[in-house]
Specification:
- The complex is a heterodimer of chains A (403) and B (448).
- Chain A has 16 helices and 12 strands.
- Chain A has 2 domains: 8-291, 7-stranded beta/alpha barrel (Alpha-Beta Barrel), CATH 3.20.110.20; 308-393.
- Chain A has helices at 38-67, 79-88, 90-101, 122-140, 156-164, 176-179, 203-212, 225-234, 259-272, 308-311, 314-325, 327-333, 336-344, 348-352, 357-360, 374-394, and strands spanning 8-15, 73-77, 105-107, 146-147, 169-173, 188-189, 197-201, 239-245, 249-250, 253-254, 277-278, 290-291.
- In chain A, the strands form 3 sheets. In chain A, strands 1, 2, 3, 8 and 11 form a 5-stranded parallel sheet that branches.
- With 448 residues, chain B is of the alpha/beta class.
- Chain B has helices at residues 17-29, 66-76, 104-115, 124-130, 150-165, 181-191, 203-207, 214-225, 234-242, 287-300, 315-324, 339-348, 363-370, 398-410, 412-425, 431-446; strands spanning 2-6, 34-39, 51-55, 63-65, 121-123, 172-176, 195-199, 228-231, 274-278, 305-309, 331-335, 351-354, 375-378, 391-393.
- In chain B, the strands form 3 sheets. In chain B, strands 3-2-1-6-7-8 form a 6-stranded parallel sheet, with helices on both faces. Chain B has a 6-stranded parallel sheet with strand order 11-10-9-12-13-14, sandwiched between helices.
- In chain B, strand 6 (172-176), helix 6 (181-191) and strand 7 (195-199) form a beta-alpha-beta unit.
- The longest helix of chain B has 16 residues, at 150-165.
- The chains are: A alpha/beta (403), B alpha/beta (448).
- Chains A and B meet through helix 11 and helix 16 of A and helix 11 and strand 11 of B.
Chain lengths: 403, 448
Amino acid sequence: MPSQKIPKICLFFEAHQPNRLKPYSFFHIGNDPFYEDDQLNQDILNQVSENCYLPANQLFTKLIEESEGDFCFSMSLSGVLIEQLEHHRPDVLQSFQKLHATGGVELLGETYHHSMDFQLSPVEFARQVKLHEAKIQEHFGVTPTSYRHSEMVYYNELAKFVGQMGYKIMLAEGVPHILGGRSPNHLYRSPTVKSMKVLPRHSSLSDDLSHRFPHKSWEGYPLTPDKYASWCADSGGQILNLFMDYESIGERIPAASGIFEFWEQFPTAWKKRKGQFSQVNELTRHHSKGIYDCHTPTSWAGEEKDLSPWRGNEMQREARQKILLMEDAIKERNDPELLHQWAKMHTSDHFHFMSTKEETAGKTPHDLRPYDTPYDAYIFFMNALSDLQLRLESRGPVNAGKS
Amino acid sequence: MKVLMLGWEFPPLINGGLGIACLGLSRAMSQKLELSFIIPKIDPEYFVDRLELIGLNHLESQSFDRLRLEKNLATFGEVNWVEGSLVGGLQPYGSAKPQEHTNYSEYRAWVQEKISHLPKHGKLTQKLEAQGLAEKLTMFREDSLYGDDVGDKVWSYGQVAASIAEERDFDLIHAHDWMTFIAGMEIKRRTGKPLVLHVHSLNYDRGGPDSYGWIYDIEKEAMEMADLVIPVSQYTGTICTGHYGIDPAKVHFVHNGADPVTTYRSESPFKKGLVLFLGRLTGQKGPEFFLEIAAKVLEKNPHVFFVMAGTGEQMRKLIEYGAYRNVGDRLHFTGFLNKEKVNKLLSMTDVYCMPSVSEPFGLSAIEAAQFGIPAVISKQSGVSEVLTRARKADYWDIDLMAEHIHELLTNPEAREEAIRISLEDQKNCTWEVAAQKVISLYHKHLSL
């Protein structure tokens, strides 16, 4: 069928590194105002830079330049990652700037601290999004117009709020029960804000590249650019949304598996089939196919596509709630450093490390967790939180009239 | 007077309070009489003045005197024979059936035949080998003295210790806790010497009143056979006589002592108070009650901090429950702490809380008192008989416990008074006093 239309590929990468906490014991409380494991964070940043950021940036810069405008994609860099790069790897930050300067990369908006909580404090959420916009403007000279929330979290209320902040389009996980039998390969819109467009991720084709690619037991192995291009062409619809972690290239999926060679050859393989690439913001002009009506938060995690990896147990619930309860007191203090330290504790990874999901399911524990158990993650977090509370109290009330 | 002591733990290789108590008591007693201590595992670098330590993991240097053994076998004789077959009927599942003898002459003939080829003076290990016990020693070179095969270890310890005992001179056997009670009974059967049992902890304390089983059986049979039972408190004595039905005439408690420590105070960041729980996170110690007490105190005084120092099988459950009760930023867990860290914690603590469900003694409350920390302790504890004027409540009485803590944290006069009293109360709590009482009991009840 030579006349069959094939979808445009909308490629998106998320780049992020959290500020992991050190094993902050009870005896640190009141004595150590530094919660982060600087050495570990620096070591991991260096490792990911060598394995992923530098070679991937170099490769994509080359591909964009060679394609003369045909190859393009979207990506987001969390504020906390940019901050780490500023401090430890300005060379890597430059390589991102160089990549962006090709004109083939759109940068998306998100929360500066890679946080997840919108429900509990829309005010703080908006502050973090604005902070991220400012950071992107500072280093890349642009202000994002498309939005992607941490861990691909999406639901109506969030989309409405993001729309009110001026964003026109937002990424989401293509959750089967929300799609209700429809293909994710279309542009949808939010039910509450007419102008807010939604792009649902194609889970299986995205996961083929970001997870299954190196596994020899997988039936698709070895995945060649041509084979993958044929799958993409056959996936139907108008837009194929492939969203994944940037770190999957070279870090989670090692270079030895041939992942770089795959990416190097894929744009050509796609072009051979007359396929096109598109950035997220270009799609806002399209007409939406229908309404994507998502009442409860969904994410790109696991089979359930919900928030259970971050909110699945009481430890996560309490830690998240306790940090947010400090908002007013922290902000009253008007101390930028304290505010920043507090905000960095919103990073979703802290709560992910406390997840007991994989343990109860009998699977291997979270391979990225820097502590032995989720209980340790909770203990260190709560110890640091107590220290932050004490520091807040010890400075006394700002206004003597208030208590 | 020569005492043969049987113990399971001894410093520096300790798991809990048992080893500390054994050291404290035996060191004080050895100033007044001759004392040998048979222990499964010793650190050969560790010496205690005037105390002979015999470790089953280090028997190479121990010698054996065949003539003395033969003399002992003759003197012990029929007169000392205690009813019952040797290596009696209590046997944990899975262990091989040992050699049994129904009367003393049969046993004596067996031993004499086994040792007949040995030199007059040799190594103790040669004798153990002749009796088929040498292979039993390997299990005491392992790391843990507990674990799934604790029954086998207890059984092997009994056989080896009895073999060592039969060629030694002593006037009485003094065994500490159930792990050594089989050995104690076996030695009494072979030698006819009086048996003293020191009860630091019972199956009742560890498993609750409904917990029966082979350990309970060992404890009961041994206490019935013993000539004198020394629980570490009156509270534990009532469990021996009540729950185990032991004749009160031979049950006489002696409180533990406490070694003096160098105490200090350090600055605490917890200005509104720090309340400490110190112990294994296991049902017996009542950690879940501590958590409830903390939640109760925090209702009234949200700036108090609580800390649970220790580890145990309930730790994860407690962490999750603490999060559920929303006290995770006020109740902190430290995990296992070494002595230095424990002292550091004590130096910052404002109130010590011990809500044990059943605590035979509770040395840590004394240690807290030495640090000048007022204690709130459960009535179901031996230490409440020593710290007679400390604040007490039933372990389940969360309201009263919380009230006590709240008062000690908010009423400076009550606090000063409580500190003064606890410093006074703990003064008489020494190992010298305990040792003297034990020796008096020997004289009075064993006619020695």
